[in-house]
Amino acid sequence: MKTTQRLDKILAHMGYGSRSEIKRLVKMKAVVVNGKPVSDSGLQVNPYEDRIEVDGETVVYKEFIYLMMNKPDGVISATEDNRDRTVIDLLEEKFRHFDPFPVGRLDKDTEGLLLLTNDGKLSHNLLSPRKHVPKMYFAEVQGLVNERDRAVFEAGVTLDDGYVTMPAKLSILSLDEREAGGLSRIELTIMEGKFHQVKRMFEAVGKKVLYLKRMSMGALLLDEHLEPGQYRELTEDERQSLQAEPS
Ligand code: URA
Description:
This protein is elongated. The two termini are 24 Å apart. It folds into 3 domains: 5-58, RNA-binding S4 domain (Structural Genomics Hypothetical 15.5 Kd Protein In mrcA-pckA Intergenic Region, Chain A); 66-129 and 219-243, Alpha-Beta Plaits; 135-217, Alpha-Beta Plaits (2-Layer Sandwich), CATH 3.30.70. The mean pLDDT is 95. It is built from 7 helices and 15 strands. The chain is of the alpha+beta class. It binds uracil (URA). Uracil is lined by residues 106-107, 110, 196-199, 212.
């Protein structure tokens, strides 16, 4: 990006403190731009082209942050909550100062892939109902999921509020008849994201989701090395694959 911005705004965005704290750093001659100590914290600087140093350390500027989290059970997909811990509470300060937010919501008891970013445009594209970004879930379901359920999901299920879902792909991974009433392990890919959609789809065929984990969203796959509650930045390839989602 070619535009210039105020130095204090750039440094605040990068987590160097509030505007007044940055003013103090400037006064102490701790901020150097292109080799010269700065005397005005409002100096116009191009963060991609000018070399900014604070206390001798070069500032590597980035506007956006993209994090993949394996969301744990018991945590809310929101930026704030009065009662419960949120996914933002799990982040280190070095990521939190970018003001990331979750792209869409997983239920409090759902685990798995959650993207956190401050890139509103990407979030909007991924969530837009018109884009039909596929989301794949693994679930353990009480009851024996059968061929009829598969056909019903393929055709579209009528939810409790009368909404008919778009065709969804159901794969039965295993059936355990020894459990009371049976236990099924399945994968389900849906192209939309209605409230509690997966749970309500199974309710519509008389079955109950006991455990739910999101495995993928568009081209982005959950990194199997991430334990619940862990997260990492997206690789450049992952970020580009998301931005290339069909429109
Ligand atoms: N469907 C659900 O029912 N819950 C989720 O968290 C995600 C999809």
